[in-house]
Amino acid sequence: MNGIDKVLAPLAGRPVLSYVLAAFDGCNLIDHIVLVVNEKSLEACRKLIAKEGLSKPIDVCVGGKRRQDSVAAGLKQLKDCDWVVIHDGARPLVTKDLIERGLEAAQESGAAVAAVPVTDTIKVAGDNRIVRQTPLRQNLRAVQTPQVFRFDIITQAYQKAKGDVTDDASLVEQAGYKVKLYMGSYDNIKITNPDDLLIAEALNRHGK
User: Fold this and answer.
1) Residue 178 CB: number of other CB atoms within 10 A?
2) b/e 30-54 (16+ beta carbons within 10 angstroms → b)
3) Residue 28 within any structural domain of the chain
4) For position 188, which CATH number holds?
5) What total number of domains does the chain contain?
């Protein structure tokens, strides 16, 4: 992102993060928001929150080197909590519906993750880039956030965490819990590079 914190990058005149905060603040099933940011962006995020005028209580804390370190820091801010909805601040097109459906899906096993069927054929390759396997596409899902967990499940998973993972559900799976997949949204893209901002702006404009 050319040195820019992607959650503060401008998207249709507003910071990426403001869309995420608005979605969670507007969801009646959410009681409390915890925002985990890097130290350099801490003051800017606090100013953004004050400007947004959110109705829900919100805490801000500094994250860690890895994604899982940041989530662990966020979990420490929570008390008397039944359910946790974890979402990437770089996914600005999350909706109230996605959040609510995640909480509904999680009732079955205590853990639910938004995901969409992959549309491309996936190849598993070795270090030499030689194809080792072509999994059946019908069984593959691209995982997104929100990821929803019963509070005791996600906290136990983090207490038992071993190694690096790229999403919270992986830790929950390692801890022996079942994770339910529910239908995400192809519009729910993650901002990773500047071109993604252009795509997100087009999707946001189309969705209005």
Assistant:
1) 11
2) beebbbbbeeebeeebeebbeebeb
3) yes
4) 3.90.550.10
5) 1
Does 1 reside within a domain?
Answer: no
Q: What range defines the domain where residue 110 resides?
A: 6-207
| pLDDT tens profile 143-165 | 999 999 999 999 999 999 888 99
> How far apart, in whole angstroms, are the C-alpha atoms of residue 51 and residue 16?
14
| Rounded distance between C-alpha atoms, residue 57 and residue 86, angstroms | 16
Q: How many CA atoms lie within 13 A of 85 on its CB side?
A: 27
Q: Is position 133 within any domain?
A: yes
Total-model pTM: 0.94
Residue type, 107: Q
Say if residue 19 is exposed, middle or buried (CB neighbours under 10 Å; 0-12, 13-18, 19+): buried
User: What is the C-alpha to C-alpha distance for residues 1 and 191, in angstroms, rounded to an integer?
Assistant: 9
Average pLDDT over residues 76-96: 96
